Every structure is written in structure tokens, then in C-alpha cells.
Design the sequence.
């Protein structure tokens, strides 16, 4: 068994697609209409057949509440691995991404956290 799709709740699918593809550099894998929303997935540019990230509409009240509460508590919704957190931090700052935590060493891991503009905090980590 392996993970093939994981999702993140987003307030606006179009805005999220733009952020995750243009700012973060993920590649759109699927974009299929599903009722009033779309099934939009992205993959890493380094692994076109890897785990897909689904931009899940937060239309359900429980999804909105969950998303709001973890954001308010400063809890990242997801973590992405990077080869060099400081280099990625500088690249994303250059693209206008707003960080809530600068690169910080935590034992053998260096992390940073940013706002995805779609209702989530995202953590990047380097082991």
C-alpha cells in the first residue's frame, strides 16, 4: 500500500492552483470538473508520478472550522521536504511568499513556515 493522493483544504481553488504552481513550483497533474468544484491535483516537478496533492474545497462547515482553528493555533496543515530550507526560504521570499517562521533548527531538522494565502500554514523541512 502507498499514499497516492493527499489533500489540503483551500478557500479558493483557482487562487490555490496559482499559488501552488506559480509560487511553489508544483505541476498540475489533473483538473477535472466535479459538480460545482474541480478535482485539482499537483505533483512535485521532481516526481511527475509521485504523490498527488489535492486542492480540496473547504466548502463543508467542518472543513472551514478545522482549517480556521489549526491556522489560528499556528499549526501547519502539511509539510513539504526541501533539500535546503534557507535556499528555499530566500527563493519564496523573492516570490512574495509571507513567512510566519524563518528557518529554524530543531534538532537534526531545519524548518520554516509560510502562509499559502488560501487559509493554511505550510511547513518546509530539511533533514
Sequence:
Amino acid at each position: 500500500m502507498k499514499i497516492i493522493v493527499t489533500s489540503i483544504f483551500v478557500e479558493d481553488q483557482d487562487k490555490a492552483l496559482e499559488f501552488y504552481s506559480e509560487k511553489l513550483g508544483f505541476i498540475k497533474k489533473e483538473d477535472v470538473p466535479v459538480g460545482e468544484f474541480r478535482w485539482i491535483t499537483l505533483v512535485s516537478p521532481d516526481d511527475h508520478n509521485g504523490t498527488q496533492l489535492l486542492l480540496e474545497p473547504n466548502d463543508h462547515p467542518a472543513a472551514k472550522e478545522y482549517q480556521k482553528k489549526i491556522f489560528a493555533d499556528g499549526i501547519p496543515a502539511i509539510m513539504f521536504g526541501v533539500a535546503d530550507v534557507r535556499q528555499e526560504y530566500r527563493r519564496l521570499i523573492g516570490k512574495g511568499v509571507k513567512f510566519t517562521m524563518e528557518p529554524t533548527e530543531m534538532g537534526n531538522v531545519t524548518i520554516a513556515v509560510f502562509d499559502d494565502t488560501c487559509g493554511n500554514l505550510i511547513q518546509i523541512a530539511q533533514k
About this structure: The chain has three helices and eight strands. The helical segments are 13-23, 61-72, 85-94. The chain has a mean pLDDT of 97.
